[in-house]
Every structure is written in structure tokens, then in C-alpha cells.
Amino acid sequence: MKKVIFTEKAPKAIGPYSQAIEKNGQLFVSGQVPVDPTTSKVVDGGITEQTEQVMKNIESILQSAGYSFADVVKSTCLLSDMSNFAAMNEVYGKYYAENPPARAAFAVKELPLGVLVEIETLAIK
User: Fold this and answer.
1) Is the predicted pLDDT of residue 124 greater than 90, yes or no?
2) pTM exceeds 0.85, yes or no
3) pLDDT tens column, 93-118
4) Could you tell me if residue 40 is left (phi over 0), alpha (psi between -120 and 50 degrees) or otherwise beta?
5) Tally of CB atoms within 10 A around 99
């Protein structure tokens, strides 16, 4: 049976999806955008600030389900422009200093709310 994961420490879903779903020791975290959960607004700043907020949102969801970044096995990073890849990668790398997960990164035409980055995550215990 699947378990819906929700925390007030991450942005509420802006559509018909859950922040995360857990099933059989696997946690599927929906794509997180740089929305501050306390204001429900996109954070000010550029790709560095936006990536930092995305990673904080992912961390909050992981923790609420009893997982950590050490449990993450796969991430998918969506960028509005590949010229932001290096700056995104620098912030992202701080959260995976050792044994980083498998990852894909893509540039897409546009992202929800006009943000610069969205990251989805899969964690397994």
C-alpha cells in the first residue's frame, strides 16, 4: 500500500499530486521548485538561491518520511537554461558531498511558475 507524504516544511502541491509517495521502502519525491513554504512564493534571486531552496524543500520531505540525502539513489534536474548548470551543480553538490546519487539533467522549454530549476528525487532504504 502506498503512503502519501506531506509536510508543512515544504511547499504545498500546486496541482493534483503529492509531495512524495512511499511504497516498499522507496520514496518518490515529486519535482520540487524554489517556493518558500512559509510565503508560498518563489524565492528571490537567481539560480543559486533557487537551487538552495529546492534542496531545502527536498530535505524537508525526505526528513518527514524518515529518509536523508544518504538514501537518495536518483535525481532528475530540470533547468530552464543549461547555462545555469554549473551554478546549480555547485549548490546541488554540497548536499551530496560523498557517494552522490545517479542523476540526469535536462534543459526544458519552461518550468512551472517561471522558475529556473526543478528537481525530483528517488530515495530507497
Assistant:
1) yes
2) yes
3) 999 999 999 999 999 999 999 999 99
4) left
5) 9
Closest CA to 125 of 69, 55, 76: 69
- The residues, ordered by sequence, that sit 6+ positions from 102 with a Cβ below 8 Å of its Cβ are 73, 74, 75
Integer Cα distance of 45 and 19 in angstroms: 24
How many Cβ atoms are within 10 Å of 17's Cβ, its own excluded? 10
What does residue 74 show for φ and ψ, rounded to 5 degrees? -155, 140
Would you say 34 and 48 are in contact if contact means Cβ atoms under 8 Å apart?
no
Query: Residue ranges of the alpha helices (H) in 1-125?
Result: 47-64, 85-95
Rounded Cα distance, 27 and 6, in Å: 12
Instruction: Tell me which residue of 2, 10, 66 sits closest to 37, measured CA to CA.
Output: 10
Cell numbers 530540470 correspond to what residue? Answer: 78
The C-alpha cell at 66 is: 524518515
